[in-house]
Structure formats: structure tokens, C-alpha cells
């Protein structure tokens, strides 16, 4: 039972990432940052939509580490983009 749910989670995440990459390619907006951000959003959505009601398996508890690392990298990307927008004399 847990293996089927884990496989469903992985399939949903892969489908989201492939779909997002395809849309970014079609929009001619493909970049590492955008793929990462859209994949992180999809990851968070898939985690919430596939969350069990009563008992949380051990493999789902380990997803917190991936979420934390993803949010740190997202913060780095946001700060880097903000610094690129600011005029040179501001900092």
C-alpha cells in the first residue's frame, strides 16, 4: 500500500515537472531558475494533495528536508534577482 502511494507521488511530481518544462519551452522562457521555481511549486502542491489523513509514513516525514532545502534555494534566487534589479549605487 505504501509503495503504491509513493509511486503515485513520484509519478505526479514527474508529470508536473515534465509539463512545466514543456510549457516553459513552448513559451521560450526556459531557464534553470524558472524550472526550479515551478518544480518547487508543483512539489509543494503534490505534497499537500497526496497527504494522508491519519498516519504519516516515514518517507513523507523526510520530505520536510527537501521542502526546507527548496525554500532556501528559492530565497537565494529571489535575493539574486532583486539585487540584479536594483541600481548599482543602492547597495
TrEMBL record:
It comes from the Archaea. The chain crosses the membrane at residues 12-30, 36-58, 65-86. InterPro entries: DUF8044. The keyword Transmembrane applies. It holds the Pfam family DUF8044. Keywords: Membrane, Transmembrane, Transmembrane helix. The keyword Membrane applies. This is Uncharacterized protein.
Amino acid at each position: 500500500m505504501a509503495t503504491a502511494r509513493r509511486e503515485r507521488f513520484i509519478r505526479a511530481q514527474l508529470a508536473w515537472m515534465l509539463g512545466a518544462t514543456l510549457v516553459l519551452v513552448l513559451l521560450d522562457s526556459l531557464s534553470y531558475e524558472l524550472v526550479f521555481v515551478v518544480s518547487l511549486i508543483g512539489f509543494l502542491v503534490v505534497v499537500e494533495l497526496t497527504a494522508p489523513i491519519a498516519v504519516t509514513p516515514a518517507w513523507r516525514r523526510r520530505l520536510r528536508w527537501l521542502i526546507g532545502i527548496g525554500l532556501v534555494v528559492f530565497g537565494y534566487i529571489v535575493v539574486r534577482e532583486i539585487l540584479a534589479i536594483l541600481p548599482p549605487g543602492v547597495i
